[in-house]
């Protein structure tokens, strides 16, 4: 019977093209608005590294002001000091560990025609690449010994490699960065985790950096701080070294802890480390060290903006308004079919048969509305992309899951909207319709 | 075939209570052809709707083909309508955007027949009413008489034992009305029981029996003399069924 109902649905839609188009348009508008905000929220709240997000932990130790917490009610700082980052790295207590920071420098390409340009730098350790499953196009990351030897080596993003070396395999070639010569050891393939979980302090949806180089080069080359630097007391001196040794926080740290036992051990280590620091006159606040896995850290950092949540609810209300309009249009359409419904009842259709027939018709309208709504959602995402620029660039694409969600939402919404009109249609008294035709 | 005992039907609104049928009694034998006449508002159509299970009643008893239909569910009533009853309406009630084939197909779809069986029945029914060559036409491409023939084909396709006709010639000119009436008599002669509501006394006389309804009651019930000429097929059929 389904194919019969489908044929009747298409006939009925063709019979009232204007009314049908209005219903499709109403559903399309609601779905378009909803899918635009759902997509943004979905991408904002997505797990960027699902296969190991519960094994990677962001490290927080409370090195802050004894009189004021870093954040109310009693939050530890969201970054580490240079001293703590290095101490925790040297302890090597986790399966893998990386401290990191952002910085920037000017790249001077070889060719005379090529102009120098500013590049974002991620200073990090060798474990960064295997820990976060970073894909390589050419070469690889560097080794722990190269970290310690503070070698001037660099991994380029694919875009930077295209810009500087025309996309060729540049491994082994040299590149001038911030006035210093570096050797390229690897070139990344496209890599854009959404959110950019490994450092959300500089923007959870920013592009990944142009260059990756050993963390300790910051001290060696006196590279500037990038991102947010927060201090609760002033550095003791004006030198770069004094600034590094201050209580200012600017460094992020992640550890890989495959088991719950590993996590407990590492937390115990952090508390022990904090006690040691207290003995040295640091860490004046009570013990307040934290380990947060990827999704917990995204939640703490409020990666999904409140604005986006509000927009999501507003769009659902708009969808509801569109569905209320659809209900009105369906009532009008089905009341126009009263004579046919009466006849079908007379010749043996049960209420259930007619309910299914009209639900299939409503579903067809819903699917058409969903497809049109997808088009509107794409336009909406383009609009958000052009309105918010780089911030939203990685949040404005519809993947297959979102397409399926859009169609499912349209189907469920239209069926929900069609229930009352369909129920009314099925309860038309056939006798009154048969005589009056 | 149809047995109504003291059937009553009351339509109620907030202000008014209308007694459409009062102690309505009627027995229709298998193979009979009954014409129901009476003034407007006398309850003819209400009787027909109750007989066709399109409406429920408030009191009394109604047995259709030996089955008490007083307390059947909607689904059971639909099934009986589909399997045992055929309807013919004054306004033809064809679905305008379905061609003749698909119009006749409507009741068969709810019967659950396979495609080949439906096709056979549709072609046979349209053949019987003389419209087999026009099965791809839309109703709007036919005359009123032809449309009523399609409606009759639709009513017959399910091979019902009981045909209910409400003013089947009311929208037709006299020539077409006679043609449709001849068709109904032919169908009755093949054994289908027919109950027909009509205003036209000349048409009523062509049935085997006439009942006259007034104020929701059967006030007269008599055999039609002209009917005796063609040796009651009804009694023949009734006898053969026994």
TrEMBL record, chain A:
<dbReference type="Pfam" id="PF02687">
    <property type="entry name" value="FtsX"/>
</dbReference>
<keyword id="KW-0472">Membrane</keyword>
<protein>
    <submittedName>
        <fullName>ABC transporter permease</fullName>
    </submittedName>
</protein>
<dbReference type="InterPro" id="IPR003838">
    <property type="entry name" value="ABC3_permease_C"/>
</dbReference>
<dbReference type="GO" id="GO:0022857">
    <property type="term" value="F:transmembrane transporter activity"/>
</dbReference>
<feature type="transmembrane region" description="Helical">
    <location>
        <begin position="21"/>
        <end position="44"/>
    </location>
</feature>
<feature type="transmembrane region" description="Helical">
    <location>
        <begin position="400"/>
        <end position="420"/>
    </location>
</feature>
<feature type="domain" description="MacB-like periplasmic core">
    <location>
        <begin position="20"/>
        <end position="215"/>
    </location>
</feature>
<keyword id="KW-1003">Cell membrane</keyword>
<dbReference type="Pfam" id="PF12704">
    <property type="entry name" value="MacB_PCD"/>
</dbReference>
<dbReference type="InterPro" id="IPR025857">
    <property type="entry name" value="MacB_PCD"/>
</dbReference>
<keyword id="KW-1133">Transmembrane helix</keyword>
<dbReference type="GO" id="GO:0005886">
    <property type="term" value="C:plasma membrane"/>
</dbReference>
<feature type="domain" description="ABC3 transporter permease C-terminal">
    <location>
        <begin position="314"/>
        <end position="430"/>
    </location>
</feature>
<feature type="transmembrane region" description="Helical">
    <location>
        <begin position="310"/>
        <end position="331"/>
    </location>
</feature>
<feature type="transmembrane region" description="Helical">
    <location>
        <begin position="363"/>
        <end position="388"/>
    </location>
</feature>
<keyword id="KW-0812">Transmembrane</keyword>
<dbReference type="InterPro" id="IPR050250">
    <property type="entry name" value="Macrolide_Exporter_MacB"/>
</dbReference>
Automatic annotation (TrEMBL), chain B:
<keyword id="KW-0547">Nucleotide-binding</keyword>
<dbReference type="InterPro" id="IPR017871">
    <property type="entry name" value="ABC_transporter-like_CS"/>
</dbReference>
<dbReference type="InterPro" id="IPR003439">
    <property type="entry name" value="ABC_transporter-like_ATP-bd"/>
</dbReference>
<dbReference type="InterPro" id="IPR015854">
    <property type="entry name" value="ABC_transpr_LolD-like"/>
</dbReference>
<feature type="domain" description="ABC transporter">
    <location>
        <begin position="2"/>
        <end position="240"/>
    </location>
</feature>
<dbReference type="InterPro" id="IPR003593">
    <property type="entry name" value="AAA+_ATPase"/>
</dbReference>
<dbReference type="GO" id="GO:0005524">
    <property type="term" value="F:ATP binding"/>
</dbReference>
<dbReference type="InterPro" id="IPR017911">
    <property type="entry name" value="MacB-like_ATP-bd"/>
</dbReference>
<dbReference type="Pfam" id="PF00005">
    <property type="entry name" value="ABC_tran"/>
</dbReference>
<keyword id="KW-0067">ATP-binding</keyword>
<dbReference type="GO" id="GO:1902495">
    <property type="term" value="C:transmembrane transporter complex"/>
</dbReference>
<dbReference type="GO" id="GO:0016887">
    <property type="term" value="F:ATP hydrolysis activity"/>
</dbReference>
<comment type="similarity">
    <text>Belongs to the ABC transporter superfamily. Macrolide exporter (TC 3.A.1.122) family.</text>
</comment>
<dbReference type="InterPro" id="IPR027417">
    <property type="entry name" value="P-loop_NTPase"/>
</dbReference>
<keyword id="KW-0813">Transport</keyword>
<dbReference type="GO" id="GO:0022857">
    <property type="term" value="F:transmembrane transporter activity"/>
</dbReference>
<protein>
    <submittedName>
        <fullName>ABC transporter ATP-binding protein</fullName>
    </submittedName>
</protein>
<dbReference type="GO" id="GO:0005886">
    <property type="term" value="C:plasma membrane"/>
</dbReference>
């Amino acid at each position: 019977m389904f194919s019969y109902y489908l044929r009747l649905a298409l006939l009925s839609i063709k019979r009232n093209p204007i009314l049908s188009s209005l219903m499709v348009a109403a559903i399309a508008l609601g779905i378009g608005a909803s899918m635009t905000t759902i997509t943004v929220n979905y991408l904002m709240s997505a797990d960027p590294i699902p296969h190991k997000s519960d094994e990677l932990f962001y490290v927080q130790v409370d090195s802050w002001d004894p009189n004021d917490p870093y954040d109310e009610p009693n939050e530890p700082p969201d970054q580490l000091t240079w001293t703590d980052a290095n101490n925790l790295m040297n302890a090597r207590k986790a399966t893998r560990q990386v401290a990191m920071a952002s910085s920037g420098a000017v790249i001077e390409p070889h060719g005379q025609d090529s102009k120098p340009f500013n590049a974002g730098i991620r200073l990090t350790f060798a474990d960064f690449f295997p820990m976060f499953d970073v894909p390589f196009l050419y070469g690889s990351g560097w080794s722990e010994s190269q970290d310690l030897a503070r070698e001037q080596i660099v991994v380029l993003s694919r875009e930077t490699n295209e810009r500087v070396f025309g996309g060729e395999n540049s491994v082994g070639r040299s590149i001038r960065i911030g006035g210093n010569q570096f050797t390229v050891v690897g070139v990344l393939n496209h890599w854009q985790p959404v959110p950019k979980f490994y450092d959300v302090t500089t923007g959870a949806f920013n592009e990944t950096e142009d260059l990756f180089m050993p963390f300790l080069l910051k001290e060696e080359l006196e590279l500037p701080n990038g991102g947010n630097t927060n201090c609760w007391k002033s550095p003791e001196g004006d030198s770069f070294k004094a600034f590094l040794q201050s209580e200012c926080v600017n460094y992020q740290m992640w550890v890989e802890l495959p088991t719950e036992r590993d996590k407990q051990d590492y937390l115990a280590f952090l508390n022990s480390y904090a006690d040691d620091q207290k003995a040295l006159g640091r860490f004046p606040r009570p013990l307040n060290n934290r380990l947060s896995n990827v999704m917990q850290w995204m939640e703490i950092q409020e990666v999904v903006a409140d604005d986006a949540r509000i927009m999501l609810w507003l769009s659902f209300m708009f969808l509801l308004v569109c569905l209320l309009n659809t209900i009105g249009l369906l009532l009008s359409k089905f009341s126009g079919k009263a004579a046919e419904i009466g006849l079908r009842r007379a010749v043996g259709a049960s209420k259930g048969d007619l309910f299914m027939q009209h639900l299939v018709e409503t579903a067809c309208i819903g699917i058409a509305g969903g497809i049109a709504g997808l088009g509107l959602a794409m336009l909406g995402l383009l609009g958000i992309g052009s309105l918010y620029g780089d911030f939203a660039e990685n949040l404005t694409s519809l993947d297959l899951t979102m397409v399926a969600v859009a169609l499912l939402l349209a189907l469920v919404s239209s069926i929900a909207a069609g229930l009352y009109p369909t129920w009314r249609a099925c309860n038309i008294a056939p006798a009154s319709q048969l005589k009056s035709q | 075939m149809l047995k109504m005992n003291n059937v009553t039907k009351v339509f109620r609104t907030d202000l008014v209570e209308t007694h459409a049928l009062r102690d309505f009694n009627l027995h229709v034998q298998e193979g009979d052809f009954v014409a129901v006449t009476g003034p407007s508002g006398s309850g003819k159509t209400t009787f027909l709707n109750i007989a066709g299970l399109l409406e429920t009643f408030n009191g009394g008893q109604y047995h259709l083909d030996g089955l008490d239909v007083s307390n059947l569910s909607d689904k059971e009533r639909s099934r009986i309508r589909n399997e045992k009853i055929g309807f013919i309406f004054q306004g033809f009630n064809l679905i305008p955007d379905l061609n003749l084939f698909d119009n006749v197909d409507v009741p068969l779809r709810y019967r659950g027949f396979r495609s080949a069986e439906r096709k056979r029945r549709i072609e046979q029914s349209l053949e019987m009413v003389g419209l087999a060559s026009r099965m791809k036409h839309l109703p709007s491409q036919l005359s009123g008489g032809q449309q009523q023939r399609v409606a009759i084909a639709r009513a017959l396709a399910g091979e019902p034992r009981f045909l209910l006709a409400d003013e089947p010639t009311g929208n037709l000119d006299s020539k077409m009305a006679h043609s449709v009436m001849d068709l109904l008599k032919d169908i009755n002669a093949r054994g289908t029981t027919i109950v027909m509501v009509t205003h036209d006394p000349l048409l009523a006389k062509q049935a085997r029996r006439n009942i006259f309804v007034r104020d929701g009651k059967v006030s007269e019930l008599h055999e039609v003399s002209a009917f005796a000429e063609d040796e009651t097929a009804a009694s023949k059929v009734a006898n053969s069924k026994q």
